[in-house]
């Protein structure tokens, strides 16, 4: 194709415009990525996740490419030399391919976040496989340098690459982008995943890859159509536009999806002492300060989050409410021990009902006064005209007109909890816990020598969690394998819950194995498994910083529910919260559905109070087991497993102070 004698005014203006807008856009993206970091601190860079660091490298190399090639294009002297042509070709090829390689590393990091299963990068087969796929990029760079074109035409540089090199680069870039994006997106778009946030991430990844590929293909075909030779303004300008658009869409795809104003979607949180210093005395006062019926106020609470592999979360997650909500009353010191009756009836889920009955229909505490084991009812009013955003209606009647649920409990009443410690003497520690009809057995082995030496950590113990579900445990009557996605997510949640609680630094070069067996399911399986794992770890003598007490909570209309059954769990937006009662911290919050911010705050505080109640029962069972063990050691016998009155029956309320 014939080349123009001189560059046109349109070409020069478009070229300088592309470079100025490109540098401005890339600088803005870098500033937004670093606005929450102290960039002059070495600790910031050492603690920064590799995915965020890789994204910054993509933006920086793009910015550097724009700067250097801009100087080559518009620097003095106006007449070009052969040296400038050679430098332009070499800089364009090297910086372009380096930026592409960093983009591939970002894609590989996202693939590892989905397929790594919590393993380190070099221990993950899929991560190593993806890195092997990047090795041919070096050969492609060598081919492009060997087939580079650069010569002078009427005092101006003509640069480019031959057809063979351009076709090889284009084919490799398209194939690798599509393959890595498919590996990342495929597990996230399955119909079994209900999280809108994960699906939004998958859609953004597909859109970013599509946009980047379209721009790269257009740039490649323009170069191919011009015979592999372009004026330096056209070649460097086209590469600059290609890199800027790819870097910007990569930045956009790796940002966390925007949360709507009227909903909240949580990831694992950690609630600091400052946010909840005195929950037992000030919970009602804080809610009264944040919510009043007189006028709307703005309430906010900040919760630091654990850094995840997916670098879409900031260091602090702030939930802001601009709607008035009434206060939640703190439960009074009331105790009762009603008679527990098991009934077999027509329950919507087909399971056994668990009712708490007392003689003559009235329960009496030890001092003879009337007692009630439920928390005070929530006196919540509608604060939105359009209540459909949070007041979700159930398909079945969850609470009748009398304020009772399908199994006979009140809204904030917990199911009966049964605890049995050391049911399996062959394990280092074991526990069987039942919340109503949900029964989970946990066995702990360790600390012991790791079976896989490659996974051993020299400074701390490795926690392994394995989940198995009995085929008869649910109405599905289905056997789930160990590699089932739901089972793996279940195990990852339990492992993430206990990693900050178990003092793993006391057991270097060892592993702690937690085997969870679900025997019966009627809602609250995760909370039961966490409570049972806590007691099993205590039974094994493993050092913990605190008890871990978990409870599920939900909201129907303006009423909060605790300790959900299977029907309630599948019908209502709910969360599972694991709290450390003594240190006043939260180690896990999981929620797969969206919930209005005000309702989230209410059931969050309600679940915190339920955690304190469960803590008393679990501590009583552990102390009883310890007492029997000490007694058996004194008498030279074997301590029987703990299963008595103190470990069964309805949960008691107590005076938190």
From TrEMBL:
<dbReference type="InterPro" id="IPR027408">
    <property type="entry name" value="PNPase/RNase_PH_dom_sf"/>
</dbReference>
<keyword id="KW-0812">Transmembrane</keyword>
<feature type="transmembrane region" description="Helical">
    <location>
        <begin position="12"/>
        <end position="32"/>
    </location>
</feature>
<dbReference type="GO" id="GO:0016075">
    <property type="term" value="P:rRNA catabolic process"/>
</dbReference>
<dbReference type="Pfam" id="PF03725">
    <property type="entry name" value="RNase_PH_C"/>
</dbReference>
<dbReference type="InterPro" id="IPR015847">
    <property type="entry name" value="ExoRNase_PH_dom2"/>
</dbReference>
<feature type="domain" description="Exoribonuclease phosphorolytic">
    <location>
        <begin position="413"/>
        <end position="542"/>
    </location>
</feature>
<feature type="transmembrane region" description="Helical">
    <location>
        <begin position="201"/>
        <end position="225"/>
    </location>
</feature>
<keyword id="KW-1133">Transmembrane helix</keyword>
<feature type="transmembrane region" description="Helical">
    <location>
        <begin position="53"/>
        <end position="75"/>
    </location>
</feature>
<keyword id="KW-0963">Cytoplasm</keyword>
<dbReference type="GO" id="GO:0000177">
    <property type="term" value="C:cytoplasmic exosome (RNase complex)"/>
</dbReference>
<dbReference type="GO" id="GO:0071051">
    <property type="term" value="P:poly(A)-dependent snoRNA 3'-end processing"/>
</dbReference>
<dbReference type="GO" id="GO:0003723">
    <property type="term" value="F:RNA binding"/>
</dbReference>
<dbReference type="InterPro" id="IPR036345">
    <property type="entry name" value="ExoRNase_PH_dom2_sf"/>
</dbReference>
<feature type="transmembrane region" description="Helical">
    <location>
        <begin position="231"/>
        <end position="253"/>
    </location>
</feature>
<feature type="transmembrane region" description="Helical">
    <location>
        <begin position="87"/>
        <end position="108"/>
    </location>
</feature>
<feature type="transmembrane region" description="Helical">
    <location>
        <begin position="129"/>
        <end position="149"/>
    </location>
</feature>
<comment type="similarity">
    <text>Belongs to the RNase PH family.</text>
</comment>
<dbReference type="GO" id="GO:0005730">
    <property type="term" value="C:nucleolus"/>
</dbReference>
<feature type="domain" description="Exoribonuclease phosphorolytic">
    <location>
        <begin position="546"/>
        <end position="608"/>
    </location>
</feature>
<protein>
    <recommendedName>
        <fullName>Ribosomal RNA-processing protein 41</fullName>
    </recommendedName>
</protein>
<keyword id="KW-0472">Membrane</keyword>
<dbReference type="GO" id="GO:0000176">
    <property type="term" value="C:nuclear exosome (RNase complex)"/>
</dbReference>
<dbReference type="GO" id="GO:0034475">
    <property type="term" value="P:U4 snRNA 3'-end processing"/>
</dbReference>
<dbReference type="InterPro" id="IPR020568">
    <property type="entry name" value="Ribosomal_Su5_D2-typ_SF"/>
</dbReference>
<feature type="transmembrane region" description="Helical">
    <location>
        <begin position="169"/>
        <end position="189"/>
    </location>
</feature>
<dbReference type="GO" id="GO:0071028">
    <property type="term" value="P:nuclear mRNA surveillance"/>
</dbReference>
<dbReference type="InterPro" id="IPR001247">
    <property type="entry name" value="ExoRNase_PH_dom1"/>
</dbReference>
<dbReference type="InterPro" id="IPR050080">
    <property type="entry name" value="RNase_PH"/>
</dbReference>
<dbReference type="Pfam" id="PF01138">
    <property type="entry name" value="RNase_PH"/>
</dbReference>
<keyword id="KW-0271">Exosome</keyword>
<comment type="subunit">
    <text>Component of the RNA exosome complex. Specifically part of the catalytically inactive RNA exosome core complex (Exo-9) which may associate with the catalytic subunits RRP6 and DIS3 in cytoplasmic- and nuclear-specific RNA exosome complex forms. Exo-9 is formed by a hexameric base ring of RNase PH domain-containing subunits and a cap ring consisting of CSL4, RRP4 and RRP40.</text>
</comment>
